Amino acid sequence: MEINLSTGTEKITQIYTGPGVFVDLREWLDHKKDLIDSVFIFTDSNTRACCLKPLTDQVPFLLDANILEIQAGEKQKSLQSAEYLWQQLTLKGASRKSLLINLGGGVVTDLGGFVASTYKRGIPFVHVPTTLLGMTDAAIGGKTGVNLGEIKNQVGTFTAPDAIFISEAFLETLPSEELLSGFAEIIKIALVADSQLWENLQTLNKDVFTLSKRGNGVWNEIVSVAVQLKCRIVEQDFTEQGLREILNFGHTIGHAFESFSLLYGKNPLSHGNAIAIGIICESFLSVKKTCLQPGVLDAIVSMIFPRYLQYHIPEEDIPLLIDMIGHDKKRIGSGNRFSLISSPGNSHHGVCCERDEILECIRLYRSLQ
Ligand SMILES: NC(=O)c1ccc[n+]([C@@H]2O[C@H](COP(=O)([O-])OP(=O)(O)OC[C@H]3O[C@@H](n4cnc5c(N)ncnc54)[C@H](O)[C@@H]3O)[C@@H](O)[C@H]2O)c1
User: Fold this and answer.
1) Distance between CA 237 and CA 163 in Å, rounded?
2) pTM given for the model
3) Taking all residues of the chain, what is their mean pLDDT, rounded to a whole number?
4) DSSP letters of 246-294?
5) Whose CA is nearest to atom 30 of ligand 1?
6) Ligand 1 pocket member 147 (CB < 6 A)
C-alpha cells in the first residue's frame, strides 16, 4: 500500500507498507538512480546484526552501500553521535546527492533524519523503521532530533524524509518488550483517532505478541491503519501548532513516570510501559474533564493492566512526580495542558488541569494496584 504524506511544503513523503514493500524499495531506488551518486545505510549495533542482511537479501543493490553504525540505545541519540556521523559522511565523500537510509528504531530515524537534514544543508533520506514504535510513530511525521544531555529531543528539525518503507518482517527479531512499547503508541492512536481500530485491538489474538507468530500479516494491517491515522493528523499540523498535540495523550503523565523511574526507581520503566501507565492516568482525567464514559475507562484498564508492568509510586512521592509533570513543555499558568479523550476516536488538546486534579488521578491509578 502506498500512502502520500503531504507536509504543508512542496515535499510529499511516499510511505509504503505491506508485503510488497521491498519491491517498492527496489523500484524507488531504480527510479531515483540518476539523482543519487552514493548510498549510505545508517544502523545501530542491533539493527546491523538483525536487519541489514534481511534488507540487502531483498534489495541486492544495497550490498554496495556504505554502512554507518553506532551503538544501540537512547544515550546515543546525542550531538556527539551526530558529529561522528557528519564526520563519517565527510570522510566517505558524501555529497548533496548522497542518499541516507536510516535502518532502525526511533533512535536511528530521529538521529539519522537530523544528520541528513543538516549535512550540507540537507541531503535526501529515507526511513526503514525496524521497531513497532518506529513503524507507527517515530518514522512518521518529519520530527528529527537529538537529546541534549538529559533533555529529550531538545535540538532538531521538522524535515520529512523522501520515503518510508515499512515491513513487518523486521518485527521477527524485535524483543517482546520493544514490541509492547510500540503497541502502547498504537493503543494511543486508536483512542485519540479511530474507534474502529480501538475495537479491533480489543479482540486481537495474544498470539501476535509471541515471536513465532509475528510475521503472519496481522501487524501489517494494524501498522497500515496506524500510519494512515498519524498521517491524517500530521498533515493538518506539520509543525505542531495545535491539533498534532492530540498525539500527546498519555504522554504528559507517562513522561513524568518515565523520568521519575529513571531518576529514583530501582527498575526504570521503558518508554512504552510509561506511556501505557500515562494512558490509564490520563483516562481518569478524561472521565473528570472531558466526560469519558467509565465503561471505556474500564476497557482501557483491562487492555493495559495484564500486558504492562505497573509502577508503585509511594504516596509521599506523588508531589515529586507532579513537579516532573510541571517541567513538561505543555505547562501553562498554574495548571498543565493535557490532550484528553471524550470517547475512543474523539480527542481534545489544550485541556487545562489543576494540580489537585492530577493528584487525584494518580491516586486513582495507585488504587488499582
Ligand atoms: N520523531 C518522532 O515523532 C518520535 C515519536 C516517538 C518516539 N520517538 C523517539 O523514538 C525513540 C524510541 O524509539 P524505539 O522505541 O524504536 O527505540 P530504539 O530505536 O532504541 O530501538 C529499541 C531497541 O530495539 C533494537 N532494535 C530495533 N529494531 C530491531 C529489530 N528489528 N530486531 C532486534 N532489535 C531491534 C534497537 O537496537 C534498540 O536496542 C526515542 O528516542 C523517542 O524519542 C520519536
Assistant:
1) 19
2) 0.93
3) 92
4) GGGTTHHHHHHHHHHHHHH-SSPPPHHHHHHHHHHHHHHHHHHHH---H
5) 174
6) no
